[in-house]
Amino acid sequence: MEVQEILGENSIANRFISQLRDTSIQNDRMRFRRNIERLGEIMAYELSKELEYETAEVNTPLGKSKVPMPKNELVICSILRAGLPLHQGILNYFDDAENSFISAYRHHPDNDENFEILVEYLASPSLEGKTLILADPMLATGRSFSNVLKALEPMGKPARIHLVSVIGSYEGVEYLKTEFPENSKLWITTIDHELDKNGYIVPGLGDAGDLCYGNKLQH
Q1: Which domains does the chain have, with CATH numbers?
Q2: pLDDT at residue 114 greater than cutoff 60
């Protein structure tokens, strides 16, 4: 699996990431969601450079113009609930894509730091021969992405898989390299060095789902 870290070079994405991390700003839920959406747009633009294109002819008021147009059949799949604003950012650029939604959450059966990833809801079109874009803002252990991939298997085999995330850990990235096909590609804004004992990214930004939509009851 190839990895493209967006902040390997300086860009406006730095500003959006800094605001997502900043405790004095991140409690503004509207801005938090919008910054994730913006980063989804940036990564969708970068990802678009690797799609397949074919020439189309467009009629203008003064003549005809030949324009390379993407020809991939895209399916965007977001992991609920934190993936929704990231999904919207990607969809802003690939507005004719089909869409999938899946739930994946941490279940703590013994009410301690040990957890398992449970997938309980899935709505998806066929993925057979299409380009699948999996979107989840936080890539901690990598198990959410891995479990979602397994849950999607009955929907068909995609021709290519792109993963889109905002902040990840090196441990999670390395884990995904063992779980996804070799021709898959991860697009991620930045990668942090640590996971704590609870499996959260350090320095990270906290719980993206809670910051987007409010605190949830634990179960």
Answers
A1: 2-210 (3.40.50.2020)
A2: no
